[in-house]
Design a protein that fits this description.
Chain A is α+β, with helices and mostly antiparallel strands. Helices cover about 60% and strands about 20% of the residues of chain A. Chain A has two domains: about 150 residues, GAF domain (Beta-Lactamase); about 40 residues. In chain A, strand 1 and strand 2 form a beta hairpin. The chains are: A alpha+beta (about 220), B alpha/beta (about 280).
Chain lengths: ~220, ~280
């Protein structure tokens, strides 16, 4: 099977970008709720342009920020991404440069932030941030572990989103034939056991006829 | 370094064995006491004479809590994979390197600090830059290298392992942040480095030995007031702030006992840990 057709089949069965975007959105919504925070966001690393992109946001400034980009290895998110280390900062507005940069980019300057890298296998896919959780007397390592758990979930969702995007873009490039195969694969995949077996049998027969024509 | 005498043929003196009668030559440079206490380990030391390298985002050397750096460089990788190290005038691109430098300075006020910036050239290729920076730091023979960072790329694991072993044998102590997420990352997992996680106690001299590695020590890493870029002071949490606490302690011990090997230094840290003999 050609790479295009493989991608087409994959795009058919893997699912759409939309469902994974919803999953990412739900991760930031839950993270925000659990930490009682003002906002939470996920940045995806765009490897082509080497930038971090706002991919999902819960809370303040969501509409304005989605899709915004910034350098991948500077600032706090960049540090977290490159070093693979989570970080919690309580009073980041003390850093005048941070406050200015963030205000220019987002219009919202958090006072405190928690940031964790999104790691999947060997890859660093992005960064999860939780902004302005309520101030307590002291931060606890239990919260750090909780942040790590959310980051893990977000990384899985981000990985799926990237796969779906790759498959869909290959599909878009590969023309009408591959699209039909993708639709067919998605349809067969959605059938119940018995129907699915019948569907696969029918496709097997179609394949045999096509091969005969090819041979003739 | 001592050269072998011409009258002693190499084949009769195997490099990795101890010939008969040579045991006397193994006398330790340090008079090891019956009981290793904190007072013996670093009492009276200010870290003077020890160079601590901060491999991070750069250092804001004008920050009052940093108190100046001896040298600041930026590492990169050239088109033919060559390591390029140039003087750095960018300062700190995040704030984290400044935080680490300030923590080390707070414990070892008279140590020398060197900043090696390995951030800022983009995420792509950052693993290679990290390696380049570490390689350069090891080649310089710094006493302590603080690494509040790690990589998850398996392709770098082998080279990093070689580098950390090289450092260990040449008496450069690498202090590296452990990962508190369920992923494989390096170099903190290697036994030739001192790996550090966080505890929640507020005392900068409280540190624990962990009998259940790979993380070997826990140091102060929660709600730490640190120096930050732009002259700021902020409160931070993370293993990356526990790590410079151990680096500072290493500088204190080496300031008093410069002859210690990394193995001996680690033993001193074990014996003076809060949960071992630290109260004495």
């Amino acid at each position: 099977m050609s790479e295009d057709l493989k991608a087409a089949v994959a795009a058919g069965v893997v699912g759409s970008q939309e469902s994974f975007r919803e999953l990412l959105q739900s991760v930031v919504e839950v993270a925000r709720a659990i930490f009682g925070a003002e906002a939470s966001s996920i940045f995806l690393l765009d490897e082509q342009s080497d930038e971090l992109v706002f991919e999902a946001i819960a809370g303040q400034g969501a509409e304005k920020l989605l899709g915004q980009r910034f350098p991948s290895s500077t600032g706090i998110a960049g540090w977290v991404l490159v070093t693979r280390q989570p970080l919690v900062i309580e009073d980041v507005t003390e850093d005048p440069r941070f406050a200015k940069d963030v205000a220019e980019q987002t219009g919202y300057v958090p006072k405190g932030l928690m940031a964790a890298p999104l790691l999947h296998d060997e890859r660093a896919l992005g960064v999860l941030e939780v902004l302005d959780r309520p101030q307590r007397s002291q931060f606890s390592l239990v919260e750090m572990d909780l942040l790590g758990l959310f980051a893990n979930q977000a990384a899985i969702a981000l990985d799926l989103l990237q796969r779906a995007r790759r498959a869909e873009s290959m599909l878009a490039e590969s023309g009408e034939g591959a699209e039909v195969v993708a639709r067919l694969a998605a349809t067969v995949d959605s059938l119940e056991d018995e129907q699915r077996a019948a569907g696969l049998k029918l496709l097997g027969a179609v394949e045999e006829v096509l091969r005969r024509d090819e041979g003739g | 370094m001592a050269q072998p005498e011409e009258s002693a043929p190499q084949e009769l003196r195997p490099a990795w064995s101890l010939p008969a009668g040579a045991a006397e030559g193994l006398a330790l440079a340090v008079e090891w006491p019956g009981e290793v206490t904190r007072d013996w380990a670093w009492g009276g030391s200010t870290g003077k004479g020890v160079t601590v390298c901060i491999l991070d985002s750069g250092v804001d050397e004008a920050h009052p809590l940093v108190g100046g750096v001896q040298r600041a460089v930026v590492a990169s990788v050239g088109p033919d994979d060559e390591v390029i190290v140039e003087d750095d005038t960018e300062g700190d691109l995040c704030g984290h390197g400044t935080a680490c430098a300030g923590i080390v300075r707070s414990l070892a006020p008279d140590c020398e600090l060197v900043s090696v910036r390995v951030l800022g050239a983009g995420f792509t290729g950052s693993g290679g830059v990290l390696l380049a920076g570490l390689r350069w730091a090891v080649e310089q023979g710094f006493d302590v290298v603080n690494m509040s960072l790690s990589t998850t790329k398996k392709q770098f694991a082998g080279i990093l392992h070689e580098l950390t072993d090289k450092a260990y044998f040449q008496r450069t102590v690498l202090v590296a942040s452990a990962h508190n997420m369920p992923v494989e990352s390096y170099p903190w997992r290697f036994s030739s480095v001192i790996s550090v996680g966080s505890h929640e106690e507020p005392d900068p001299l409280t540190f624990f030995y962990n009998p259940d590695p790979p993380v070997e020590f826990f140091a102060r890493g929660v709600d730490v007031e640190v120096a930050w870029a732009g002259g700021a002071r902020i409160r931070c949490t993370g293993n990356s702030f526990a790590t410079p606490h151990m680096s500072g302690l290493c500088a204190l011990v080496l300031g008093k006992h410069p002859e210690l090997t990394p193995f001996q230094l680690k033993s001193v840290l074990f014996l003076t840990s809060t949960n071992v003999g630290g109260a004495r």
